[in-house]
Amino acid sequence: MSSVKVSQLNSQINSRLTANIWKFYLFNFIDMFALFLPFIVYYFQELGLSLGKIAILQSFMAVTLFIMEIPSGYIADKFGRKNSLIISVIFQVISIALLYFATGFSMLIVSHIFLGICISFASGADSAFLYDTLLLLKREKEYKKIDGKAKFFGEIAVIFSSVIGSIIVMFGIKITILLTLVGHIFLVFLTFSFTEPPRTKLAKIGSLTIKKEFSQLLSIVKKSLHNKKLLGLFVYSFIVLGVSNTIFLMYQPYFRETALPLNSFGIIFAIFSIFTALASLKAHYLEEKLGVFKSLLIMPLFLVAALIFSSIFFVWWGFIFFALRELVRGFIFPVLGDYTNKITQSKERATVLSVGSMFSRCGLIFVSISFGFFSDAFGLKPVYIVTGVILLVFTLLISFVMKNNNSK
Predict the structure, then answer these.
(1) Which DSSP state fits 241?
(2) What is the model's pTM?
(3) What is the pLDDT of residue 136?
């Protein structure tokens, strides 16, 4: 092959890889454009589900994520990031379709299992796809900037879809699900149009047998569990993220019980997304000012305040206290990620972060099921107060342990 043809071929490949970037922005926007999200728990309640059963749905998704965390990453490494993303969006379309046609609990369970598979195949594969693309374009130094821009488009999608959903929901919640489904069918075609970064040009990692890989995985997990700092972060993730994600799950029942109009749900979600985006934007700056100790303490205290004040002022405007939870959502992942990265070796970092994710998902299962069933038995208001008090005790315990460690 002549040098001219080689140059033309490389130019074509680079052009296709460059197109991955704007397609990745669009991918994030459509993926997060869910018109039904601010009304989904209300929809479940309309189908006759109790809060306990709604929590069980979330648990099925969390368990699926727990099981698929490592296998999905392995598949993405072996068979390509693009193929992993295609699998993800196909399962997402099926999940939304089942949500639309669901008439009972069993179909909703299957929908949530498929959603768990969808999230697991996208988790990590999207970041790796973008990084590999930039690496071949020799633009890897722009990764943080481009990835941050993609997440910004995702947050903009949440804001727009929440506001638009508030208008469309007046014609029925199922219309919001159907229109979201149409958008995600388009997302399948967009994902097929991605160009997989040629694997032969990327740095190759020595292949291991599955048995050896599994053995290495167990070794890293065992080592991280024996590290007191990492174990402390895992327990922190279990409790704090478990409570935070459960509060999100209970937004809509709170809105419903305090007689907020259904079409206002989307507006509130849009406002909350702005709080989250601002917290994410300033996360590293705040962490530098506060330090690790104060950063880790302030987040559960914000959750405590959100729980207790929203239960004391159990009225329609009580939702304003949930803005504190949204600040935590934007702040917690950069802080936990940064601290974990600092105390973890590079070769083990991805696995350790996965272990942390598993703990947070276990926390969601435990806290949400407990919260759901106790709310069914005693009502939302007393359970909010009790959860807030328990979290406050946990926060004081964290403070005591961390101060003791620092003094030593």
Answers:
(1) I
(2) 0.79
(3) 83
